[in-house]
Design a protein that fits this description.
A hairpin with a 3-residue loop joins strand 3 and strand 4. By secondary structure, the chain is of the alpha+beta class. 29% of the residues lie in helices and 36% in strands. It contains 4 helices and 8 strands.
């Protein structure tokens, strides 16, 4: 039996506001139209707090209830997206400027979910590098340089207020927001 028969995939993120999502969508469509990259189009523009994980169907309500019980001393804060960058030749993204509150929010979120869902959510030992993905995994190494040449010349800068954590679930072909929680009061 494959895992999707008994489990769903989820992740948690700070979503960009709709107007920023629409702007970033244009970059995702540009790379799709030229290089066939579609993975990033399955999700709204976001900064990942807890990367995708599998969870049994029967635990979905527990996951939502755990999100609803999340409290953080971190007030709403500005996030600045500034410029394009990349991870090796596999991911092109818009970088988030260094932001201690975003790092603290990620840690608080991880801490809140890791104990009740330790079988599914594991601590992420990689350094936190907040970003909004334009293309990932499905960009061919031969196309990367051409795509990066385009984005390396572009400027993009915007600021938005982060105040909500979103829980997303993979439905056929697309990530859907199934619950949200304001982390600031």
């Amino acid at each position: 039996m494959n895992q999707s028969a008994t489990h769903n995939m989820f992740y948690m993120a700070v979503l960009c506001p709709p107007e920023i999502d629409r702007q970033i969508q244009q970059y995702k469509e540009w790379i799709r139209d030229r290089f066939g990259c579609t993975v990033a189009l399955k999700s709204a523009a976001h900064i990942t707090l807890i990367p995708p994980f599998w969870l049994e169907h029967k635990l979905e309500n527990d996951l939502i209830n755990t999100l609803n019980s999340f409290h953080s001393p971190i007030p709403a804060f500005p996030v600045t997206l500034n410029g394009f960058s990349h991870f090796s030749n596999r991911v092109i993204f818009i970088a988030a400027e260094e932001n201690h509150q975003l790092g603290a929010l990620r840690k608080a979120t991880e801490d809140h979910f890791i104990i009740p869902f330790h079988n599914s959510i594991k601590p992420d030992d990689r350094p936190f590098h907040p970003h909004v993905t334009i293309a990932n995994r499905d960009i061919k190494p031969g196309d990367f340089n051409k795509a990066w040449e385009h984005f390396a010349q572009k400027n993009y800068r915007t600021v938005f207020e982060a105040s909500t954590i979103s829980l997303l679930k993979l439905s056929p072909g697309k990530w859907q927001v199934i619950a949200e929680r304001k982390f600031s009061h």
